[in-house]
Amino acid sequence: MAKTKNEKRQTVQDLVKKLQAAKSVVFADYNGLTVVQLTELRQKLKKSEAELAVTKNTLLKRALTTINRQIDEQILAGPTATIFGFGDQISPIKILAIFAKNFGLPVTKAGFLDSQPISKDEVEQLANLPEQNQLQAQVVAYIASPLVGIVNVLEANIKNLVYTLEKITKKN
Fold first, then answer.
1. How many Cα atoms are found within 13 Å in the side-chain-facing hemisphere of 86?
2. d(Cα 13, Cα 7) in Å, to the nearest integer?
3. Do the beta carbons of residue 44 and residue 131 sit within 8 Å?
4. Whole-prediction pTM
5. Which residues 6+ apart lie within 8 Å of 1 measured at CB?
6. Residue 24 structural domain
7. Which tens digits make up the pLDDT trace of 29-60?
């Protein structure tokens, strides 16, 4: 059954709210996914504060135009699923990439990180980033490494003194 103008207007308003609230948005071609697979993907995304929506491309274009976000017309050709990430920016992208690796679908098209457009290649690069906890651990390690070096240098002098005193006591 076709939607009425009011229903379409409401859909556009809902999309605008989601686009404005989302920290990351990814467009993907879901053609070929079964209902069971789409449901599974939705459940996985929901766990990371993300949502998958399938809407008409014309309504999505209107919503993007409403908030002054430009996107190539080719991206919104064919069946398009929109993934909205409301929590962590990268988690939904990673979930989508893992799902696509396992099933071969969906195929990412492009997206937005905050309000900046990102290409398909950039989406794939973001999907390959380490987890947030791992990145934080790496930053801490980089910050701590000079301190560890200083401690080792200072400790070496004390060890040499103890070693020398031990040799002296053994000679006596």
1. 12
2. 10
3. no
4. 0.74
5. none
6. 5-129
7. 988 889 999 999 999 999 999 999 998 999 99
